[in-house]
Amino acid sequence: MNKVEIEAKVAEELGMTRKDVSRVMSAVTETIGDAIGKGQDVRISKFGSFRVTTRKACKSKDPTTGEIRMIPESKRIMFRPGKDLKSKVRDD
Question: Which of 6, 20, 33, 72 sits at 20 to 30 Å (Cα–Cα) from 13?
Answer without folding.
Answer: 33
